[in-house]
Structure formats: structure tokens, C-alpha cells
Amino acid sequence: MIGEVVAAFMHGWPGPWTEDDLFGTHDPEAVGQAFAAFCLAELGSPVAAPLFYEASVGCVAGLELADGRRVAVKAQSLASSPEYLEAATHIQEALVERGFPAPGVILGPRPLGRTFATVDELIDEGDYRDAHEPTVRAALAEALARLVGLAADFPRDALAREEQTFGDGLWPRPHHRMFDFEATQVGTEWIDELAARAKELLGAPAEFVIGHTDWTVKHCRFVGDELRVVYDWDSLGLMHEPELVGHAAAHFTTTWRLEVPLIPSPDEARAFVAEYEHRRGRQFDVAERVRLGARAVYSLAYGARCEACGDPAATSFRPGSQRDGLVRWAEEYFRL
């Protein structure tokens, strides 16, 4: 039953498969059986019907249980320790209590396959929207500022993530093994040069905030122009606030659910920042603005570097793609 939905999602994908890492197999039936057994053991109910399945760095199944509950079970990335997931789910619960549009937590981290899974209530009310629309952009910017404000007094020690830090090299470890930066160095030098220039402007942050580090419209549903729900709370992390906003300003429009440009124009990114500042109640100063722009360029460059793993020698790029945005707008993004 669940295996059929898993197989439909995998159809046509040549690999590598996240499922191999998390379950030791990408056989759809075996993956489906693992989710079914988890629900029976940890939620006390068999699965009545699968609703959807998706995989990226983790694997999530939307399921209707025999007891009537509708849940989202997410097998988390191996990079997410149980300590991190416990901290993230506590923050998610606290945000829900304070009225933020996140799904309620049903279950914190429990073993599933080779990893840990978390369970949220399934909220699928509303529509996926295009964040190039000004009202959608404003809702996203204002909600991110609200999140940062609400989370200001939350414990944060367990939220540090290796993939959110640069380390000694130019790039962090790619978030998925399908991206091999070492094997694609030839032809991507121009991306590396922009990233190095941006990284040099960043330096060491003085203060961190708690934020959602994959703040993109693909993780959101809207009812009308109102933000109904934000997903992907295993993306909670610690970032310097100007860098968090620069990162989001470069990617808030990203979605593969609609046929729209992945990258916002510099004018759209500036508007996002202004709307964030309005909700925040004060503007970023000159030094913060430099960091914000540098982080936007670095984040665009990282996305472009991932994209280039498919064809590193390319010199022309699909309009609206990550590399197209970087080659056209890098200098403007430095000046956000």
C-alpha cells in the first residue's frame, strides 16, 4: 500500500537514493513496510491509507491511520542527531503554542530504519503559491521576522548544525550525496570565485538567532494570502540574523511545485528585506547590510554549485535557474 506511493515518487529517478542511507534499501515495498511498522509500534495504529510520499535529504510519508489521525512521518537525515531533533521539536511545539503556523508535534525522535523519525499532525489545507507575488513575498518576510522574535528566548545550544557552518574550506559538506563538488571543479571556477569573495565579507558572527534555515515558499501553504502552515522544521538552526535574512532573501521564491523562476530578482530580494525590517521594527545597519548581501551571494553560489553538478562545463543556463540568477545578478546581490 505505502510501497505503491513510494514507487510512484521514485519512478524515473536514477539515484542515488536517500532511502539507501536511511533504510538500507530503496526497494519501495521495504520502505513502505518500515513506515507501516513504525506507525503500529510508535503510534499504536496501523496505516489505513497513504496520502503522499516525498524524499530529499529525508523521507516523509503522509499517512491516514486506522484510528482516524492524519500524520506526517519524516525519516530524518543522518546529519540530524536525536539531541538536535529533540530540541527542534520542543521549539516547534513552543511556536505552535504561541500561535505560529507550524504543524503540531505528535512524536519526537524515535528510531526508524537507520535513522530517527519525527511525527507531525498533517496539515494540508491551503495552496502552494508563487512567492514572486508581492502579497506572498510579504507574508513570508513578515513570518520569518515573527519567528525570530518569538524564538528569541528559546534554548539554542542543541541547534548547532555542521552543515550550517563553513568550516575551513570554501564549501560545507553538500547536503546530499548526489552533489559531488570535488568531481565538478572544472567549469565551476567562476562560482567558487564569487563564493570566496562573499565568504571573505562574512567573518565571524557576533550573535546568533534561531531561525528556519530553508525559508522557501515550497515549504508553505496559503489560504488566500494568509500563511496557513510552514513545514520542514528540521531546518531550524542558528544563524547571524543578517545572514539568515540574506539567505532567505536569495531563496524565498524557490519551489519545484510551480513553473516559476527559482531565484528572486534583486528588486524582489530588496523588498523581502524591507518587509522583514518593517516587521522587525528596525533596519539593519551598514555593516549588517554588507553581511546580508554577502550571505545572499554565497547562498546563491551554493545553489548554483549544486546545480552545476549535472553539467559543470555549461556556459548558458536555463532562465530562472540558480546559475542564471547568479551570473546575471551577483553584483546587485552584493549590494542588497
Helix content: 40-55%
Number of alpha- plus pi-helical segments = 10
How many β strands by DSSP?
9
Which series of helices and strands comes N to C?
HHHEEEHEEHHEEEEHHHH
Largest sheet: 5 strands, antiparallel
Order of the strands making up the biggest sheet: 1-2-3-5-4
CATH domain class name of the largest domain: Alpha Beta
| Shape field | globular
Structure description:
With 336 residues, the protein is of the alpha+beta class. The protein has 2 domains: 2-121, Phosphorylase Kinase, domain 1, CATH 3.30.200; 134-334, Aminoglycoside phosphotransferase (APH), C-terminal lobe (Aminoglycoside 3'-phosphotransferase, Chain: A, domain 2, Alpha-Beta Complex), CATH 3.90.1200.10. Helices cover 42% and strands 16% of the residues. It is built from 10 helices and 9 strands. It has helices at 2-10, 18-23, 28-43, 82-97, 134-150, 189-202, 241-251, 266-280, 286-308, 322-334; strands at residues 47-55, 59-65, 70-75, 105-112, 115-121, 209-212, 220-223, 226-230, 236-239. A 5-stranded antiparallel sheet has the order 1-2-3-5-4. The chain has a two-stranded antiparallel ribbon with strand order 6-9. Helix 5 (134-150) packs across helix 8, helix 6 (189-202) runs antiparallel to helix 9 and helix 7 crosses helix 8. The chain is globular, with a radius of gyration of 20 Å.
